[in-house]
Design brief:
This protein has 556 residues and is α/β, with parallel strands linked by helices. It contains 18 helices and 15 strands. It has a six-stranded antiparallel beta sheet. Helix 5 packs antiparallel against helix 12, helix 6 packs antiparallel against helix 10 and helix 14 runs parallel beside helix 15.
Length: 556
Amino acid sequence: MLQELTIKNFAIISSLHLSFTDGMTALTGETGAGKSIIIDAVSLLAGARSSIEYIRQGSDKCLVEGLFDLPKQSDFQELMEELGIEVDEAGLIVQRDLNSSGKSVSRVNGRIVTLANLRRIGQFLVDIQGQNDHQELMHPESHLRLLDSFGDSAFQEIKTTYQIAYREYVTLAKQVKKFKQNEQSFVQRIDMLTFQQEEIGNAELTLGEEEKLMEERDKLTNYQKIVDSLSYSYQAMTNEETSSLDAIGSASQELQTIASLDKDYENISDNVHSAYYLLQDAVSEIGRQLDLLELDEERLDLVNERLELIHQLKRKYGDSIESILSYYERISQELLDSDFSGDKLEKLEKELAVRESKLLKLAEKLRTARQEMEKKLEAAIQTELKDLYMENAHFEVRFKEAGFSPEGIDEVEFFITTNPGEPLKPLVKVASGGEISRVMLALKTIFSKTQGLTSIVFDEVDTGVSGRVAQAIADKIYQIGQNSQALCITHLPQVAAKADHQLFIRKEVVDERTLTKVEELTEQDRTEEIARMLAGTEITDLTVKHAKELLQLAKK
């Protein structure tokens, strides 16, 4: 239920705050006073598209805010959790801001939401029925949804079971389609990965191998330089005629003779002595290395070939042996995880056929449930149409088989004839505007009990009718108000008199600007307003008496 409505700088409304109650509320007033503007504002809260034309002349922005009772449907609670909107029993605050640049901002309980999500929320809050649009009835694709909303919990369970199976079927069908589309590229990738795995695996790389090979290559490549250097050094230190090592040994012995005479001499002697023994070790190592050295041309070729192989692998799979081995592990795991096999597609197609057969049985069960429900709906609508003085009308729900969809394998369209002897034809092509209004009211009377909408707004749906039909429409709107809050813009006194509450909307000029004012009418004010609706500009005692009579009859 819509509890509060605040409007600022919207069309000819400067500032307006309205409080609503449950039951049926009539909005009356002269043409152009702003009744439909209020409905436009409510439409924005339900997710209607905005326009800068809504902004009051001279203002930079407009605001519409509504406080709604919290819907009780489980689907609504799931939607709030999905959108991350916190809710409590205090209600739901919906706000739309529109500035002159055309930017619109929507908030629900203070959280910004997209217009698409606001529409999803709005469908739980308010249903606006205009005199010319009747969206649901005039679009056959919505007739199936209307029929389903007539179902009880047992029907909804059947439908939910089907929809779960349908989602599973669609998921598997997509998998089969993707498998077929990707089969060739999948095989090519497997072949490529297998080749890469074999190429890297056959190389038998080890961490640190490249550095060791490069070191060995450098030695082999510089063999002669190393031999010359070691030989010269060895000769310099061991030559019999000019042995550097012998000279240093002699110097060491000579220095030892004066080491005891002075501390400094002792230090010099020790250093030379140590150097002598270090050089002796070095000469031995040089000799050993010379003995080990051997030019191996074949080994040099092998080392170069190995380094070239590593270089080629690095170009393909990574900038180091470590990264190559890491890549090898990844593709090996991918090949291990790959469940591709020649009979994989066949298995998937068999499973899909089994699921399709199961889905068809569930769809047929869903259709049977709908056909049982169809008879009850037809009878209920016939009763409602009779109450609306369309006793000669005949209403029928017709089924047409279609392919699998989230709703089953059925397409549904409403057919009607309003004259005896005339064949049934699609509702959208047969009924006149007044008849459509009455059929819509018949449906709303029934569906308001099952759809769980908090508010239903009727925007001059009584246009073009009068007399007993007008009274019947008033009765139906009142009846709808017993299940959902009913807000009704009307020019008919019969409808206004039937309402539990009546708001009078008028416009006045203040400082050369037109403003819309709204006030809730007292019992006496209602009598005067209904008398005006009956008589027009000239109100007589008779019209006042008639107005009182309408109100008294409504109370009964």
